[in-house]
Amino acid sequence: MQLIRKYLSSAWQALFGDPVRAFGVVSLILLLALAIAPAKEHFSQWHSYQRKYLALIHDRGDAPSLRRRFVPGIHQTWLPELGVVDRCTTCHLGLNEPSLADVSQQPFRKHPVVPHSLDGFGCVICHGGQGQATTVAEAHHSERTGEEPILPTRYIESGCGQCHQNALPGTPQLNLGRTMLGRYGCVHCHAVTRPDGSKVEATDHPPTLAHIADKTTRAWVFSWLKDPQAYAASTTMPNYKLSDEDASDISAYLMKSSMPQAKDTATPGVKPAVIADPSAGPSLYGESFCASCHAVQNAAGNVVGGDLGPELTRIGNKAKPEWLTAWLENPRVYDATTPMPRYRFTPQQVATLATFLQAKSDSDYGSGIHLDAASPQQIAHGRKLIVELGCAACHEINGVQRPEKFAPELSTIGSKPLAQIVFLPGMEHTLPNYIVAKIRQPRAFGSSVKMPQFTLTAAQTDALATALLALTARGRAMPDNLRVAAVPETNYQPAGHAGKLIAELACLSCHRFNGRGGDMAPDLSWEGSSVQRQWLTDFLHNPNTLRPSLIRRMPRFNLNDSDDKELTDYILAVYQSPVIDADLAPVATNPPDAVEHGKQLFYSKYACQSCHIVDTKTDKGYIGPTLTQVGSRLTAAWAYAWLKDPQALRPGTTEPNQNMSDDDARALTAFLMAQKAPGGRGAKQ
Amino acid sequence: MMRRFTARMTFGTSTMLALLTFAAVTGCKHSTPAHAALKATAQGTVLVETSGGHQVGVTGTALKDPLVVQVNDDHGTAVPGALVEFRGSAGVSFDPAAALTDGSGQATTSVTLGAIAARYDLSAVTPGKAAPVSLEIVETALGYQERVGSILADKYCSRCHDSESSPERVSNYDNLEVKPHPFTEGSTLNKMSDADLTSIILHGGPALNRSALMPPYGNTLSAADVKALIAYVRAVADPPYQPAGTVYARK
Questions:
Q1: In the predicted model, what is the mean pLDDT of residues B176-186?
Q2: Any CB–CB contact under 8 A between A114 and chain B?
Q3: A38 close to B (CB below 8 A)
Q4: Cβ-based contacts under 8 A for chains A and B
């Protein structure tokens, strides 16, 4: 102790003993203190990146111009209306330098081409991270409260989705994710409101369970609840991982609460005397194009067919024969809002198809299940479970109300603070990781989590995560002029008796009319301007193939003559294009020389035969509709308008706009209108 | 004076020692091979690509199909239980990064490409009997613009330019008298300048004295669309497209 004191006092004496020396020492200390700031800047991370950048461009051919554009110091993009303060360009120096597109040394590579200017939008809007930070650790990896690490590239499309509520052509992953929110029924439980206030609507069609006992057995319901994917690999119904007792009790309640469906009085029941024709089953299934909507798992394990309706691989295990017959007869009796059309099958056809479908069964499926009759306590327990699990959020169930706000709202899930998330042990603390893990294994986050297990591929999970990450607080705070609204589905409903027919045939399941309907088949909003009366009548009566390369086709609905006429009249009268005037047809008569000139234009100047067939002997084009009978199908006014500008009549059609002169279009129209069916359809024999 | 000197010396050595140990530990950690837990039971001498090469994916996302390689011995018979390690440049990740070949001699991994849009040279390596055997695999990652191009190509072009047919999507290639060039055909397309490709897309085949079967898309596609299409054609060209580069005046 003594020694230390002695040393200290001698040091003090040595430094400050003499006033002049003291002045010198204090000056030195001051000088050092003043040097701290410049030194800190000199040794800072961004400064070293700027030096590396200068070294990188030193030997390049365009070094002088690159060096001229290089500004030392901290760079900042400040966009007050977007809340952007980004200093990323301090280190990412080559973002706007076209010649640095080949540089693989980051952070100097040129930014890939995107539709927006980097100066106009900054970086963090799309990439996340901390724009104000000037070190890599803080900018890219910060997990502090209110901050978020940078977004991994695989979810980058979520950045677009903050402003663009519509489906962009360049963001397939985001678009798929958004479709899935509706398709997989996420929004039945989780409310999702877009920044413009519109709600994301479910697009699946969970069947009503109010009459479930008419349709199937308790044993099937039990095995379905235990593992839906074992029955149908492609079903969107999630697995609730129920115990045998719970599944048994729920099935008991569903059967108990089911009420028999009122008998359909409008259509006479199928007489049991009708004999099915088993050999005609497969061809009837094929002719009716059931596979356009329903899938079947083939021997190789692939699910083949459409996904509009349920998979039918094991339908025989599920459906009761009498229910299936009644359903094929008229599906709207059991479910008034089903997307399935009423085919108007003959009793013989119904019996044939029912027998064919009933044979689609798996003898192993559900074998060995024996359920004892349930006690009232068990039934009550089943109801309790249904309420707890939220089954009624999707399905109509007698005696259970549809729960409101059953699961957390997800409208701003993309901005969920990391501090509010309980991560699994060993998991990287980022929001995308959490969302993906929650979708993949919801029950891993605790046994009390109600969210069921969905069966999704990795790509689907990523797509869903992308759509969810796009729902940010920033997106909601965006100025309105920057927001691109989603195109909402209209609530268009065709009117009158024809409207009823259109609903019964479920035309809107595949076709689009006035902004509502499916996308499997062409938009028919302007069909009345497009086609000729006789062709339409014949087509509705017996649809023939227009586009040979498509595998989804219009089925035949066995319409009677009056229904056929009713529909034809309605379509021709109502679905008219405002831009096409049939009375102003450019070719009232077809002078032979115009037809000949049109033929030359067709084959040489415009080479239409690369995609279309007019002469089946020589032409092979396979992309567009076959035109052998186009003169009996299209109106001249439509054909002319189409040739002039196809996209104006059908946005997004692949036929290019050839910028035809009026004369060329007129001659081609004359040639096309001369292509009548050989003595047949349309020419009215 | 002497004491102070030794003190400094010991301090120096201990620091050095500490540094060395630290370096050794971290170095060790760094070089811990991914296959530490895998015990190879056999060795092969030839690596063959089974499937999953030459895929076109998107930056930062997993490729659609897994990469499968097969280990064979000198007689061309598959070797089960051989170790295969997958390697790629920075940003590329494999799941798993190393695997033992299965009963049919194949090792499978899922590949996620890096964030840079480029052609990635990956390799699969197996220890082999005498020296390690490696196999080069090429995958391509598309950036935003190239992918927009690929979506447009899918919609407007590939029905004719791609001879691959599937039941869902029948190719029109065989129906055409003059055969279109597949977009991967670098031997032809690499020789065409961006200006040539632009004018053939905008004005159709006759613009370059080629077949009229190629229609003009100038009134259908936007300028950005055409640029995207060309970027896509350049990205998938095989052999790879080498831009001519800019010529700068040197002082």
A1: 90
A2: yes
A3: no
A4: 100
Residue A418 has pLDDT above 90, yes or no: no
Positive or negative: CA dihedral B69, B73, B76, B80? negative
Domain segments of chain A as ranges: 45-150, 172-200+409-482, 212-358, 496-574, 582-673
Interface of B with A in 17-56 (CB under 8 A): none
Q: Which CATH architecture has domain A212-358?
A: Orthogonal Bundle (1.10)
Give residue B54's domain range: 46-142
CATH classification of the domain holding B115: 2.60.40.10
Q: Which residues of A touch B115 (CB under 8 A)?
A: 153
How does the average pLDDT of chain B come out, rounded? 82
Q: Which tokens belong to B165?
A: 């047919």
Looking at CA atoms only, how far is residue B181 from chain A in angstroms? 15
In a domain, B96, yes or no: yes
In this complex, do A156 and B155 lie within 8 Å of one another by their Cβ atoms?
Answer: no
CB B46 within 8 A of CB B105: no
- Residue where one domain finishes, among candidates B119, B142, B165: B142
The rounded percent of chain A whose pLDDT value lies above 90 is: 46
Question: How far, in Å, CA of B203 to CA of B215, rounded?
Answer: 7
Chain A residues with CB-CB distance to B116 below 8 A: 104, 109
With a CB-CB cutoff of 8 Å, which residues 84-113 of chain B face chain A? 112
Burial (0-12, 13-18, 19+ Cβ within 10 Å), A233? middle
Partner residue opposite A622 with nearest CB, options B144, B151, B172 = B172
User: What's the confidence (pLDDT) of residue A586?
Assistant: 61
Q: How many CB atoms lie within 10 A of CB A145?
A: 8
- Superfamily of domain A582-673 in CATH is Cytochrome c-like domain (1.10.760.10)
Whether the per-residue pLDDT at B30 is higher than 50: the answer is: no
pTM: 0.86
Q: For domain A496-574, give the CATH number.
A: 1.10.760.10
What contacts A495, CB < 8 A, 6 or more positions away? none
Query: Between chains, do A169 and B143 touch, taking CB under 8 Å as contact?
Result: no
Q: Which residues of A touch B117 (CB under 8 A)?
A: 112
CATH topology match: A496-574 vs A582-673: yes
At A587 the pLDDT is 56
In a domain? residue B132: yes
Task: For residues B233 and B226, give the distance between their C-alpha atoms in angstroms, rounded to a whole number.
Answer: 11
Cβ under 8 Å to A: B residues 128-187: 143-145, 147-148, 151-152, 155-156, 159-160, 167-170, 172, 174-176
The pLDDT of residue B20:
44
Please state the ipTM of this predicted complex.
Answer: 0.85
Nearest Cα to Cα of residue A196 among A411, A466, A415: A411
- Nearest CA to B133 out of B203, B66, B82 is that of B82
Kindly determine whether residue A104 and residue B155, on different chains, have CB atoms separated by under 8 Å.
no
pLDDT at B43: 85
In this predicted model, what pLDDT tens digit does every residue of B58-99 receive, in sequence order? 988 889 999 999 999 888 888 898 999 999 887 898 988 999
